[in-house]
Design a protein that fits this description.
By secondary structure, the protein is of the alpha/beta class. It has helices at about 75-80, 85-90, 95-105; strands spanning about 10, 15-20, 25-30, 40, 50-55, 60-65, 80-85, 95. The protein has one domain (about 10-105).
């Protein structure tokens, strides 16, 4: 059975940065460096937990996915209610989650 979900369109010019943690089977797809003011949990695909971080204007900052088996950008976002322009997806970068935490601490 397919569940209808309202799509949230990403309004960012920043190509996504996918922070991957294979050990915990999680990924964070970052679309903005703006401050997160709200997190929503719209529900996810079977076996996954998905949360969406929003800024003060309700624009998507990032999407966290837990219980992930594959880490391609399209595979990840197919599990969400996020719509991203194809030209941004083509420029996605992938980094280790630990590298992102180290950069934030510096």
């Amino acid at each position: 059975m397919r569940v209808h979900r309202e799509m949230i369109t990403v309004r960012s010019s920043m190509p996504p940065v996918v922070e991957i943690d294979t050990e915990s089977q999680s990924a964070y797809v970052r679309f903005s460096e703006k401050r997160i003011v709200k997190t929503v949990a719209p529900g996810g695909a079977a076996g996954s937990i998905i949360t969406i971080d929003l800024d003060q204007n309700n624009h998507v900052v990032g999407v966290e996915l837990l219980g992930v088996q594959e880490f391609g950008i399209r595979t990840l976002l197919d599990k969400t209610s996020i719509s991203v322009p194809p030209e941004l997806l083509a420029k996605a970068r992938y980094i280790a989650a630990q590298k992102r935490r180290a950069l934030a601490a510096a």
